[in-house]
Amino acid sequence: MKYIKLNDNKKIPQIGLGTYKITERKVMANVIEAAFESGYEYIDTAKFYDNEDIIGAELKNSNKKREEYQLVTKVWPTYFGEDLTKKSIDESLENLQTDYIDIILLHWYGKDYDKAWKVFEEYKRQGIVKSIGVCNFEIKQLKELLKIGEAPVLDQLESSPHFQNSKTLEFLKENKIVHQAWSPLARGRSNLLEEDVIKNLSNKYNKTPAQIVLRWHIERGTMVIPKSSHPARIKENIDIFDFELSDDDIKAIKSLDIQKRYSNDPEDEIWLKELLTK
User: Fold this and answer.
1) Which of 66, 103, 200, 272 has a Cα at 20 to 30 A from 111?
2) pTM for the whole thing?
3) 79 among known catalytic residues
4) Active-site position among 40, 42, 49, 109
């Protein structure tokens, strides 16, 4: 495993486990078992995923000590505001059956995000959360946040070779904020893994197309959180630290950037307002 140092001097592994849409306890049990057997040390969830309780139960059933893995969750925009944000974090702690959260994230930009951020800072001072960050914040939103308080340690963004978002990544690097990629494979949303460039590199390195794309993220200095409910794929996803892409390979993958999101635009004001009804 390789690690990335955060701007608060803590570190995170360069790959973690995503858990979005995994809501059946039996499936989650298999996922967590496979993840720990394969060497994962970072589990990403969110209040919105409606699975914190089963993750907490299965982590208790595992043979891992709490200090052997990092646990990350998020606060949904309808919980922004001093009292609601505290309520959200406290409920997450209870559901996850833990005394602390390694990283707490604002799930999207939204009304009263600044009040939520102040709660994050307070809970960090108390040691209830170790680090604080954001999801789906683009440059304008990040600039707002940097004016009101502590810098986030990371920004979790939709990212793939089809949507490389280079300007935002450059801004993150300049401000020592780690870029973390969700939906890093755009699996099920696109033909990314069928691209000739990816398939040719798959043959070159004797790796699967998914491993090629995940390695590309690693080469960019990105932290990735691929999600799968299949133990074999979970193991495959982390098996990416025994090869490196060449500069020519990186250039070839750069050519796949069609600036295509497969989810919502974080700067879409209509979408942001709709979040408050979910």
Assistant:
1) 103
2) 0.96
3) no
4) 49
